[in-house]
Amino acid sequence: MPRPLGELEDAVMTRVWKWNRPVTVREVLEDLQQERSIAYTTVMTVLDNLHQKGWVRREAEGRAYRYEAVSTRAAYSAALMNDAWSQSDNPAAALVAFFGMMSEEQRRALRDAVHIVQGPEEGPEQGEGGGETRVTPDAADEKRVEKPDEKPVEASGEKPGEKPGENPDSGPGGTGR
Fold first, then answer.
1. Span 139-153, mean pLDDT?
2. 3-state secondary structure 83-147
3. Model pTM?
């Protein structure tokens, strides 16, 4: 298991995961600059480091590169949870403590995930639990989580339309550039 991402690496990877397509340094820079003052070379260095660490692959495009995530945020989160769990001298107790920290909505999502893994004959009935977030069968390949009667959202938790006027399929800032 690779070590957890640093704060700036996570901010960069969040964008790469959210956009779910090859991105340029410039695109990441422009989006990050909405939150903080940051130099082009800093973003370029972070993406190069992420490439060297195996988090992103890159493809040359002229004199620049386009970067794309090698794995999903869900896979990253799962690996972190697995690593933390395996570090415990009592994994069952650690799991019970973790469940105790979860909200009811998170517990329902967990039950839905177990239902997908076990199959319909062993897990809770479909639709049980009301309007909570549920894991869809597509989530088995770590791509989507959806709320009933709503459009699917990325498993990372970013919801389309969170920022007014944003179109998540149009790239950074949702301006349709």
1. 39
2. HHHHCCCCHHHHHHHHHHHCCHHHHHHHHHHHHHHHCCCCCCCCCCCCCCCEECHHHHHCCEEEC
3. 0.60
